Amino acid sequence: MGELSWQDLGESKASSWEWTWHHTIGAVLIVCTVLSTAVLVLPIRDLLSSPATLALKYTRTPAWLNRCDEACARTLHVAYLDGQQHCSALTQLWQEENHADVLAWRLAIDDRASFLGCPGFPRSLADMRAGVVNDAQDRRDQEESVRFQREQESLDAAVQTVQRYERSLSEGDLSQYVERSAQDPIDRNMLFVTVTTPWLELPRDQRLRITETLWQKWAIISTPADPWESSVMFVNSEGALLGEAPSGSENVWLAE
């Protein structure tokens, strides 16, 4: 039996630690495990996000927030309310309605005002909800009132315009040919003229000349800057269409 030297032991130990494909597979498994754990613990997208985006996503909730939770706080500029120190300012902010979620806004103000000990706070959630509903209804009523007022002003202006036209006909001795006139409710530059029997009894050439004059007078009153935008529709007493004068005699059509 030969004698074993220390050198032989060293060579044997070194050869046993050679890198094999088993080591490669093990290393790959370890790396995959580490990456999977990192993805579960910290979203990779957050590593690429800007500080502003992270601040918006992970909002730091002030200690004074109470009923306005984290979801509520994300929709608001909580840092602005955090800087408010005076009850009068918070009372004024309470009245603001230009927010996507008015109830969340008032909840946050209520929390801040209650934290500062402002009089009149905290307010019940039921009262706040009722206030938001009532304010929204008041706003709709006000918008409807403004819309109605504008429509009324438009109608009044239309009446005045037609009255000016009828006075112009009287001054030109043309009233005998017009029974009544009315603006189109949609196209205010369009005028419906109901002609009288004497107009229908005139020769066609004379009717054409009068038609041209009636249109010109309307165009001067309706669209003086661009007369060609005005038009006149002629009807008889029964409402039947007789002709149209949208832009002068070359475009006048009359029934024979």
Q: What is the topology?
A:
Elements: H1 6-16, H2 21-41, H3 44-48, H4 51-57, H5 70-74, H6 78-82, H7 87-94, H8 102-116, H9 125-171, E1 178-183, E2 190-195, H10 197-200, H11 204-222, E3 231-235, E4 241-245, E5 253-254
Helix pairs in contact: 7-8, 8-9, 9-11
Question: How would you describe this structure to a colleague?
Answer:
Residues 246-256 have low confidence and may be disordered. Helix 7 runs antiparallel to helix 8 (102-116), helix 8 packs across helix 9 (125-171) and helix 9 (125-171) packs across helix 11 (204-222). This protein is an alpha+beta fold and 256 residues long. It is built from eleven helices and five strands; from the N terminus they run αααααααααββααβββ. Strands 1-2-3-4-5 form a five-stranded mixed β-sheet. It has helices spanning 6-16, 21-41, 44-48, 51-57, 70-74, 78-82, 87-94, 102-116, 125-171, 197-200, 204-222; strands at 178-183, 190-195, 231-235, 241-245, 253-254. Strand 1 (178-183) and strand 2 form a beta hairpin.
List how many beta strands DSSP finds: 5
Sketch the major β-sheet. Answer: 5 strands, mixed
Please report which band the strand proportion falls in: under 5%, 5-15%, 15-25%, 25-35%, 35-45% or over 45%.
5-15%
Class from secondary-structure proportions: alpha+beta
* Low-pLDDT runs: 246-256
What is the rounded Rg?
Answer: 42 Å
The first-to-last residue Cα distance is: 140 Å
Please count the helical segments.
11
Calculate the mean pLDDT score and round it. Answer: 79
- Reading side by side through the largest sheet, how are the strands ordered? 1-2-3-4-5
Helix content: 55-70%
> What overall form do the CA principal axes indicate?
elongated
Order of helices and strands: HHHHHHHHHEEHHEEE
